[in-house]
Amino acid sequence: MKKYTLILPLTSLLLSSCGIKQMIDESTCTIHRNRRAVEMSTEAICKNVEAIERANVAIDENRKKLDAINGSLKEIDVK
Q1: Cα–Cα distance between 29 and 50 in angstroms, integer?
Q2: How far apart are CA 54 and CA 32, in angstroms?
Q3: What helix, strand, coil percent values describe the chain, rounded to 5?
Q4: Closest by alpha carbon to 17, among 9, 6, 5?
Q5: pLDDT of 40
Q6: Splitting the chain (79 residues) into consecutive groups of 10 residues, what average pLDDT does each group show?
């Protein structure tokens, strides 16, 4: 009878440690997925920043063109 009382706790401990290992493996997978998601988000943010910078350049160019047009119109009004 004493043999069985020792085996049952060991079996329970073994099953418990397998469950813990599975949880650790799943957590590790989740961490890797989240890390990749963060990398993809960072890439998207960088692309958006680049697009905003290009848009700002275009806005500045258009503003200069409008200023030139307004300057021409003022010259016409003055004459």
Answers
A1: 32
A2: 33
A3: 95, 0, 5
A4: 9
A5: 98
A6: 58 71 88 96 98 98 94 70
Helices vs strands, H then E, count in the chain: 1, 0
Instruction: Give the model's pLDDT for residue 73.
Output: 79
Q: For the CA atoms of 48, 53, 59, 60, what is the dihedral angle to 10 degrees?
A: 170
Which of 33, 4, 70 lies closest to 41 in space, CA to CA? 33
d(CA 12, CA 75): 93
Q: Which long-range contacts (CB under 8 A, 24 or more apart) does 67-74 make?
A: none
